[in-house]
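Slide 14.
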Amino acid sequence: MRRHPYQGIGDHQFWNRAVTWAPPGGLDPVVHTRFRITPDDSIGTMGSCFAQHLARHLARSGIDYFVPEAAPAGMDAAEAARRQYGVFSARYGNVYTVRQAVQLVRRAYGDVVPEEEPWARDDVLVDPFRPTVEPDGFADVAALEADRASHLAATRRVFEESRVLVFTLGLTEAWRARADGSVFATAPGVNGGEWDPDRYEFVNFDVDDVRADLVEWCDLVRSVNPTVRILLTVSPVPLIATYEDRHVLASTTWSKSVLRIAAEEAYRRFDFVDYFPSYELISSASSPRNHFAPDLREVEDRGVQHVMRTFTRHYLDGLPWQAAPAVPAPTASSAPSAPEAVVCDEETIAAAIEASR
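Slide 15: predicted structure.
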């Protein structure tokens, strides 16, 4: 018998054994993990809309979901959700791009002070860097700046005190100020402010940009928290719109590919970084079932459950994955259901278009 290097490798390395015959709801691409999370580990979260599903799961699982910017005492749950308390560990809103994440760390520690003034929205002001977290806006600059100072203080605690920090990478497209390169979650004019091409420009960060930014972000976080472990994921949610003059499907594929490459390189570079394949679990054409809603963008609850069940199985200690109450296993008769509402700044693009008609 002739010998060859594929003799004796694992079943998970063969497509027909690991993917073709995976049972419904049983596709599991996680082979090794670099760390486990115990009930004593405080976990911080940030990133795109899909990261909110993981945050909710952590909060329900008995794990220490770290939220230093919590709702004020006496505020009811509905109002707290409306004002984005607990959506992420701090009220930074969606951090879609890695450049935003680097900017957030540097703003939190005063290394960067953007020139951008508060944006006007009707009769109130909004924070350009988190324009949806205070839905009713701020009455004046003093109120905005006081809230921002409190928010950045809580953000510093996220970076300094989290034992595990989960960052879900979402987009490569962004809008930035020409004056100093400050990056925003949404384009000026969508959630406040006014569009002015002399002041703002579109940017689509390429693979070299994102790789360098992610390395810088990991280094920055480790500089204030030397023992933190970082878990990266890539959101499976497609772009709601692209500003590139090409099909949105092509832009989505390009963007997610860039983010996935950057995450892989960070994983290879840093031994404290791990990667969880939420993108692969949902978006792969090889998935045993389609996890997207009829709009082919939102992830159905059954898909979210599959991701959370897989995450629990491989990362959470002290909580048997079979017993996780927030992620019941799918059954043959279970009908697709819509996921719990998530706060998604990107969604406001569609609302802004409708409002302008």
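Speaker note: Residues 74 and 80 are 10 Å apart (CA to CA).
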